[in-house]
Amino acid sequence: MKHQKSQDRVKRDTQEQLSRKEYERELERLHIELVKLQEWVKHEGLKICVVFEGRDGAGKGGTIKAITERVSPRVFRVVALPAPTEREQSQMYMQRYLPHFPAAGEIVIFDRSWYNRAGVERVMGFCTEDQARRFLEVAPLVEKAMVDSGILLRKYWLEVSPEEQTRRLESRIHDERKIWKLSPMDLKSYSRWYDYSQARDEMFQATHTEWAPWHIVRSDDKKRARLNLIKHLLRSVPYKELRREKIVLPKRQKSGGYEEAEPQVDVVPEPY
């Protein structure tokens, strides 16, 4: 197994770099397919739930942005919950996630999910070991109920190497545009690489099921990871392109004597 992982890493390291032009051309093609999927989901009343998990710096945010930048936020909803309130901490653990599950005609993307309990909460001591193990027992049952209710559940784990994670987190330190992405918790988590690895392995073992399997996405190469994940997501949901009527812009109405006047309100300065 270790030998195979080593071979995979060598293959990725020697893989020809995907150019920006190639990436954008393929992403445009996939965006068109995502729009077709969106229209099919609305037409058929499908309910899709997509879970994104992975280490800090694995590329979850950028991948989610790549998925959602050309589709409707009314269909593709992104859920990124903050730390639970005192009231939420007293609830059944899954309770705060239930209101965000998709209704008919929706695709809900969880940027981190209920699996916080199996990862950061467990590793950083925000829950007891008993609570974590109880979660691993209950999660497959909850997901079975989701799938039985008609929700199409897709779970992705973005896997980044320790070297690439270091490079990405260091880049956040020196980039004023990214510094907000680096929290004190990220720094604490960074030092616990193997604790997270063990927690991940136990999570996979307990929650990789026939009805809700995990899919690992190698994300050292961000461009390829985004394309591979989007293509997998599209292939995992059967959809058809709906026939559209030809769109023709109507004629604009006549002014009827109306004349444009200078607006008596503030105008944004134009320094560019």
Question: Can you walk me through this structure?
Answer:
With 272 residues, the chain is an alpha/beta fold. It contains ten helices and five strands. The protein has a single domain, classed as Rossmann fold (3-Layer(aba) Sandwich), CATH 3.40.50.300.
Task: Briefly summarize what is shown.
By secondary structure, the chain is an alpha/beta fold. 45% of the residues lie in helices and 12% in strands.
Give the helix/strand layout.
Blueprint: H1 2-13, H2 20-44, E1 47-54, H3 60-68, E2 76-79, H4 86-89, E3 106-111, H5 120-123, H6 129-148, E4 151-159, H7 162-173, H8 184-190, H9 193-207, E5 214-218, H10 222-236
Parallel strand pairs: 1-3, 1-4, 2-3, 4-5
Helix pairs in contact: 2-10, 3-10
Largest sheet at a glance? 5 strands, parallel
Given this structure, which CATH class is correct? Alpha Beta
Unreliable parts: none
CATH topology-level fold name: Rossmann fold
- What's the domain count? 1
Helix content: 40-55%
- End-to-end Cα distance, whole Å, is 56 Å
Which characteristics define this entry?
272 residues; 45% helix; Rossmann fold; alpha/beta; 10 helices; five-stranded parallel beta sheet
